[in-house]
Model the fold of this input.
Amino acid sequence: MGLNDVNLLQEKIKTAPGCPGVYLMKDASERVIYVGKAKNLRARVRSYFGGTDSRRMIPFLVSRIRDVEFIVTDTEKEALILENNLIKKHRPRYNINLRDDKNFYSIRIDTKEAFPRFQLVRRVQKDGARYFGPYSSSSSVKETFRYLNRIFPLRTCRDLELKTRKRPCMEFQINRCLAPCCGLVADRDYRKIVAEAILFMEGRACSLIRQLRSRMDRAAEGLDFEEAARTRDRIGAIEATLEKQRIVSASFRDQDIFGLYREGDRIQVYAIYVRKGAIIGQRGFPILKTGMESSGALSSLLKQYYNTGVTVPGEIIVPEQMEDARVMEQWLGEKKNGRVSLVVPRRGDKKALLAMALSNAKNALRAEEKLEANNEEVLDTLAKALLLKKLPCRIEGFDISNIGGQYAVGSLVSFNRGVPEKSGYRRFRIKMKEGADDYGMMREMLERRYREGVNMPDLIVVDGGKGQLGVALSVLRGLGLEGVDVCGLAKESRAPLAGGLSRIYKDRDRVYLPNRKNPLYLDRHPRALLLLQRVRDEAHRFAITYHRKVKEKADFRSVLDDIPGIGKARKNALLAYFREMDTIANASREKLAEVSGIGKAAANSIFEYFQAQKNETPG
Ligand code: SF4
Done:
């Protein structure tokens, strides 16, 4: 750092505002490497340079700081919100970045809709809808979802189907839906069931049961025995569901419990979710690698976690006191629209729950370490077997999928230390039209991925043999990126023998490497081969899924394009109603006319079009 820079930085620190706000620390290339908030910016920033901040990461951070920027806020809570947003924007190296690749299921209901329905979603959005969860196990969330549909007869169909249906579907016949699609239920009655379902999801089943009991009694007194029997069955179903939940807290509160286990710079946080005294889910967060003290790391994680829109409970149990606990309580209270307490328990139920979360955190870290050690060993074997320049910590795999050059797509999958990293996945719609062969498509995809030369992997795996490998090498050479290792993985199935015969081999994968005439067989390193196969198979799966999507869309549109009088709106209505082309092709005139916007004339045209096609098809 030049003398001028030192003076400038010292001057900035000296004149830092003595009020709440956010500070952004930058390195020599002006990259933001740390974002923090403070009640008093001047005092906080001086503590970094005056040696009074004893956090382990400070010496590393300070040695890299070349500039500091301040943003003043009116309150500490505003600073907390701004800090969160800036961390999300800059992803600074020395902050905790919650890269939560695991998208847990939540259950969503949007009460703003005319006839709300429950949906299973992977992403919680800030859209004003209610979200319940997240649920760590997909089987438990699916079970809850099934209960919901069984107990509360709300619609399960999509919005377009709700609007376009002329007759109720099967759900109505089996008493699982009140058929708002056809106006068979009054808004008020539907809303009542929505409110009951929400009570159930909030864990307030006891008050729900009380309400239902009095409704049942009223119905019986009014001699409406059908309604009384329906309500009795619903009470029974709720009680059976409750019996399966494990009550762990006599306080019957909503609580999130965060256990934290640390080994050196590695921190594992494990959460247990309790609703009305029963555990509804638990999960481990991705391991944090940081020199930051545990309470600071936990505070950063909680801020980022609750900023994703997940449900905020009334009580959050943590293992140690956090410096900014009070301001966090305020911020969380606003999110919840109620009081939120951050509690460090000393005894009783809460302490026992925390102990459970801590022991789970410890187990999760140990399990992860074991997995990493195994993966490290496999990476090392692979590096030695293929004579790679580096340990293949980050591997990218490519595949293409098409039918005779049509609907051509490509896929890129990314593996970090042997584990798929979904955030690195990418799909390509192949643009080239001329000479669309497999090699050309692979070339286009690789060029599009690597032309910027950023975030390069340690190893590239292409699906195929010498040809595909040659394409990859020539793309990298053309882009001046020859330093990256590349291999091709091809399946061997048969070999020609004299006399036009062929000898069938068991499928055996061959690895093609640059500057090597013959392929390599990794029979002696089965786990290393398995890793390459997983990369190849995952790329294949990802490409095929995308290809199907593209093809289905195109098929659907192109067939309907041939029918006179079927425009975009009608195509969409047909798609929403029937979902599949075969169902449309086999639908009767009457069924087709049920779709909203498809009058008798259009239904006739569609019906006749498919009849004509069937008559033309031999056999
Ligand atoms: S189509 Fe009608 S009956 Fe079927 S789920 Fe939707 S609203 Fe209910």
